[in-house]
Amino acid sequence: MDEIGKGFYGEGVAATDVVGFLAENRGRPIHVRINSPGGLVYDGLTIYNNLLAHDAEVTATIEGLAYSAASFIAMSADRIRMFEASDIGIHYAWGGSIGNKAVLRDAADWLEGIDEHLLDIFERRTGRKRDEIDAWMAGNVDGTLFSAKQAVEYGFADELIQPKDNKNNRVHKSNALRIAEEKKNQMLAKAEFDHANARMRIVEISRGG
Fold first, then answer.
1. Are 154 and 185 members of one domain?
2. Phi then psi for 31, rounded to 5 degrees?
3. 10: pLDDT confidence band, cut at 50, 70 and 90?
4. Structural domain span for residue 34
5. Pseudo-torsion of CA 47, 50, 51, 54, nearest 10°?
6. Cβ contacts of residue 25 below 8 Å, gap of 6+?
7. Are 47 and 74 in contact (CB under 8 A)?
8. Do 134 and 172 fall within a single domain?
């Protein structure tokens, strides 16, 4: 699970790497595979803006989790796909500050400005009312997590990826084949029984004649 932005040890997905990759692949379709808890908001916004400006189709597939910054990065895609067993989560921006009351108020204003950016992104992509999205970002504690089915319903995704042949399907197919085989054997046994009875009747008729 990759975080957005480079960490202390160099882990994570940096905006500079994504921008460079997109520059090297101008005019080519891009497939963004997402499984991320989020990360640095400005790295996320930079990635979002550059994917949005890419000059070819962008497809995003959420393979596990798209939370926080990863959720709005996904909104840059022309088509957003989610596996049935995946989630997307949105919330208000986080931050920390140390200082007097003026510094803390300034930090709160800065966070509110970021929240406005996020509201713009989600409103534009989903077509939902701004107040509704704002309530989801607030959530009961810290934001709202949507299942893939809910995400498609509310406009955060376009397509639900159905499993091609999961374990349950294989079990159903196996049972269906077993039942079909049993029916075939029953029909063959009945046919053999009927044939034997017919031969016996022919013999009896011959003897009687």
1. no
2. -115, 115
3. confident
4. 3-161
5. -160
6. none
7. no
8. no
Whether residue 96 sits in one domain with residue 51: yes
Query: How many angstroms separate the CA atoms of 141 and 190, rounded?
Result: 67
Tally of CB atoms within 10 A around 122: 24
Q: H or E element: which one contains 158?
A: none
44 vs 66: CA distance, rounded Å: 12
Instruction: State pLDDT tens for residues 104-135.
Output: 999 999 999 999 999 999 999 999 999 999 99
pTM: 0.76
Burial of 12: CB neighbours in 10 Å, binned 0-12, 13-18, 19+:
middle
Q: What is the pLDDT of residues 27-85, one digit of tens each?
A: 999 999 999 999 999 999 999 999 999 999 999 999 999 999 999 999 999 999 999 99
Q: Which two tokens stand for residue 94?
A: 């986080």
Both 115 and 145 in one domain: the answer is yes
Average pLDDT, the chain: 87
74/130 same-domain check: yes
Domain count, the chain: 2
178 alpha carbon, distance to own chain's centre: 35
**Other CB atoms closer than 10 Å to residue 48's CB: what's the count?**
23
For residue 2, the SS3 value is: coil
